């Protein structure tokens, strides 16, 4: 199975960015381990800090993959364009957040994406991506 992982703004700085919230590990090194744990499946990874690029990436990944793991980061709480894109594709999406957004500021409690997602994993750190993989493969 081919699975897409799409990360939104500032997640390119994972490991350096607010490590007390998001941890010390960068995404690339985590991805290597994740791919090694699922050798029979192909992971296609994309990251962008730009909303429109994320819209296009969702369209493209939906063509190429059978499932998408999506952390829209701050756009979760603001982007109708990303919510519309998620509703426009047939590919199942698992929404993942590293931090538990419900323990944080109230503006993080609203997700425009969740109604279009098959499921949501929040607060389990990078492990959330592995669990999302298992959910898609299961
Ligand atoms: C995040 C949570 C968002 O509220 C925040 O803007 C992020 C990361 C998370 O993975 O916990 O950038 O999506």
TrEMBL record:
Per the Swiss-Prot or TrEMBL record, the active site comprises 22, 97
Q: What's this protein's function?
A: Catalyzes a trans-dehydration via an enolate intermediate.
What are the GO BP annotations of this UniProt entry?
amino acid biosynthetic process; aromatic amino acid family biosynthetic process; chorismate biosynthetic process; quinate catabolic process
Instruction: Give the CDD domains listed for this entry.
Output: DHQase_II
What gene name is listed for this protein?
A: aroQ
Q: In which pathway does it act?
A: Metabolic intermediate biosynthesis; chorismate biosynthesis; chorismate from D-erythrose 4-phosphate and phosphoenolpyruvate: step 3/7
The keyword Lyase is annotated on this UniProt entry: yes
Which residues of this protein are annotated with the site description Transition state stabilizer? 17
Which keywords appear in this protein's UniProt record, sorted alphabetically?
Amino-acid biosynthesis, Aromatic amino acid biosynthesis, Lyase
Output this protein's name.
3-dehydroquinate dehydratase
Subunit info here reads: Homododecamer.
Q: Which PROSITE patterns match?
A: DEHYDROQUINASE_II (PS01029)
């Amino acid at each position: 199975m081919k699975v897409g992982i799409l990360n939104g703004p500032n997640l390119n700085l994972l490991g350096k960015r607010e490590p007390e919230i998001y941890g010390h590990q960068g995404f690339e090194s985590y991805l290597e381990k994740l791919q090694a744990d699922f050798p029979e499946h192909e992971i296609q990874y994309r990251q962008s800090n730009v909303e429109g690029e994320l819209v296009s990436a969702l369209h493209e990944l939906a063509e190429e993959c059978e499932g998408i793991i999506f952390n829209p980061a701050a756009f979760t709480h603001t982007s109708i364009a990303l919510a519309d894109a998620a509703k426009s594709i047939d590919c199942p999406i698992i929404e993942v957040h590293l931090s538990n957004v419900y323990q944080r500021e109230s503006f993080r409690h609203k997700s425009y994406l969740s109604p279009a997602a098959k499921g949501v994993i929040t607060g389990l750190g990078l492990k959330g991506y592995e669990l999302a993989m298992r959910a898609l493969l299961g």
